[in-house]
Amino acid sequence: MAASGRLRGWLPIALVVVAGGLLALALRERYHHRILTLVLLWATMGLAWNIISGYAGQTSFGHQAFFGIGAYVTVLLILKAGLTPWLGVLAGAMVAVAAAVLIGIPTFRLAGIYFALATLAYPLILRIVMDFAGYQEVAIPMARERPTLFMQFAEPRAYDLLALGVFAATLALSHVIEGSRLGYSLVALRENEQAAEAAGVDTFRCKMLAYMLSAAPAAIVGAVYAHAILYVVTPEAAFGVLVIVQTLVVCLVGGAGSKWGPVIGAAVMVPISETLDATIGDRVPGIQGVVYGAALVLIILFAPEGLYWRVRGLLGGRRPAPTSSAPAPPAAAPVTGGPAVIGGDLLVVGEVSKAFLGLQALSDVSFAIREHEILGIIGPNGAGKTTLFNVLNGFLVPDRGEVLLRGRSVRGLRPSAICRRGVGRTFQVVRSFPRLTVLDNVMVGAFVRDRQRERAEARARAALGVVALSHRADAAPTGLTTLELRLMELARCLAGAPTLVLLDEPLAGLSGDGVGVMIELIRRLRADGTTVAIIEHTMQALLRLADRLVVLDQGRRIAAGAPADVTRDPAVIEAYLGTRWLRHAESLRT
Amino acid sequence: MTRRIAVAALVLALLTPVAPPIAPAADDLKIALVVPLSGRWARQGQLKKMGAEMAIDEINAAGGIKALGGAKIVLREADAGDSVEKAVSAAQRALGRDKISAGIGAWLSSFTLGVTEVAERMQVPWFTLSYADSITERGFKYTFQTSPESSVQAEQALDLLVDLARRNNQALKKAAIVGDNTAATVFFFKPLREKLLKAKGIDIVVDEIWTPPLADATAIVQKLRSTQPDIVFYGATNFPDSIQVLQKVKEFGVKSPIQGVGAWLVTPEYVTTVGKELLDNIMSVVAAHPLKGQEELVERFKKRTGEPFMTQDPLMAYAHVWIIKEAAEQAKSADPKAIRDAVAKLDLRSGPAAATLAPGRIRYDERGRRIGAVPIVVQWQGGEPFTVVPAEYATRKPVWHGAK
CB–CB of A285 and B38 under 8 A? Predict the structure, then answer.
């Protein structure tokens, strides 16, 4: 089943490539070959951009930097060293990948529109550098003796096939990424960067990898474009704004985030543009730009998300929606056995302090989470509970103090690294990846333990089984109830096989039945050997569930111990109920 | 929804290409003109088209190409737009669609580099007025560069200036270099900066280069005022930048003579924007300008087009069409390869083509450069540009405005 599914994914790719090849052979007029070459090259450039900006959601307005690097490096190597462009292309791609690393290190610190704006700077800088270096217009020297060695074909079909090769390779790369751990990680970080990081995705590394993978094909397109289309490389043609505009047009019209988007966009827009140039543009020069702009506006009005997603939505809309009222399979039998044997300290928190400007969110908090226990962390609103979790899973670095996991410090580690060491977490407000199915959401977590897709899927399905959500595997998170969302998030956390799970108010917003389901599930987790730390501000549920309680108030640990003892602690009563109630309680006791 | 789809279908139907215009009779000789007809350089392209059309009308009215039984010349223009990609595309379209005998274009040197590559591969002779040396350094057989190349222009322009100043009892000692970093300017400045000025004992006192668009010309012009150079070499190829600099020059009262390079500095628009007085200080090196004895041609052009005067771009296109005509007469064929071979052997000493271009003779060497091509120095005088150098073709005497 899995194998045939994989084959089915490759079939349309093979069809498109074969169609391109047949077209290359069938076309007769030189100008039509040029259009085909352009379609293939712009589709490839769109695919390259799509890797970082579509899958990973990091919009790059400066992708022509890599395009231009590919063109310039290849052509200058011919000029200065007589190197064949077949090798020059590889050199160009390597330089572009190196440039991606150099650009990525400072720029990935920025997010969203700030990242997009920062990327604008790089092609501008490169343009000025090329002007300064005296490369205003570099003509590719004609190689009469060995044209094939220097990519100078008399036969236009050769350029079609060259472009087709680059296109096919990039399309295959995109397909592999879409089905890989990297692909899932990229989409997850696009949908919710913090949730991805908490689910074990090293977001910085993934973004960097995607940037490098998208720089290489862009550079190769630039080099081929210089040989097949331009013949002369100028800073304007290589690093100019037209390059990125064309790339964006192809991706936006076709639809970003899928490998088919740029392909469709290029197949539609490039022939329109060229045909306009060749017809009305020849009679009324300049009018072609206006008509092209109008066509662009129309397409964006009718399909703002891109033609691919639009068509898919129309086709998908006819399918009957999966019934959400399908009866849930009965949850696993209640655990009746006694608690697992509580072991030694798994995680030790030592005098942790964290302040936000003037607000001291945590001060000198110390406690330990023991193996196989259920530890409840309680405290009134604003006590610092979520800040504590953020310190434990690496979102925040404590100002002072240590966090030791099995005796080793995890202070300063990225959340994804802490996750890989076996600490999973859920959030007070569920953080899902809305454009992924429930199964795919959980798979993001499963990839922590298994890079291989099929095995990760098996893990994810098993995790869904544990939380009794298998029947919703193909649903979109947007259609889920609060309980189902919380179960899905828990499954995502469990798919990474954590030894310790940090649950941030798992009962919030649940109905009475829901609370029962969740409590039962937590008990089972512990019975299966997982250690659990739960934040709650309602004490009631935790008294039934927790082995021990830690109480926080105003960033300080005010009590710790068995639930029965803690509830009688005067400091706790004061924190929860105020000093008047404390006096009342004391009078009752005496 | 159906209505929306119908509207979309309608719009798409309107966008669908229409059949190309009616084909001319089979025995016509077709010339492709690939120049910018839209975008930033559209004006230059229009001027070239005017010149080419004028030559074609004259030839056709006089009975066409006699060796081909009176075949008419037909112009096939394609818009080079504002990018190398569009220019190359236009050339491929123009050359792929019809049987083209020869081509002209594409004004900007980077466009020309790309377009001539297409022509070379498709073996169609191509004529250009672009200055860049690199155009004829690639060993192409089908490219003919009628202008003197940039390096020659710089050398000769300097010689002419030094000579002009000496005859007015001034020795040039201080020079300024001011311009953008577009290719044409860069290749003009490079030899000046590297060797030519030093050889004449002239110091460079200001060297200011910018990447268009120019943000503010004040600092540059301030330097000109404080150093008082004897001559300013000037290259601001786009109109807004150039106007900015010249208006500052006027405001600051800088009196140094300005020597530009290129026909961009002799367009009618300058008269209205900076005024006749300032223009009197300005000269430019160009590849062609109406010479002594061409007054009647200029009048015909003005009457046809309503332009106030004739400059390099229409003149060069006019000459190119005539050169192609003469080559076709000698080849007795409209075949591009035959015409190319005829052009390579051509030696025109009379006729409209030879009369248009100094030194009155048209021959190309094995690289495709016009032998003996002389740069023309044009000087604004009373709001009109006149040929002032070389003396034997000059329509006015040069006036030296430098300090005595």
Answer: yes
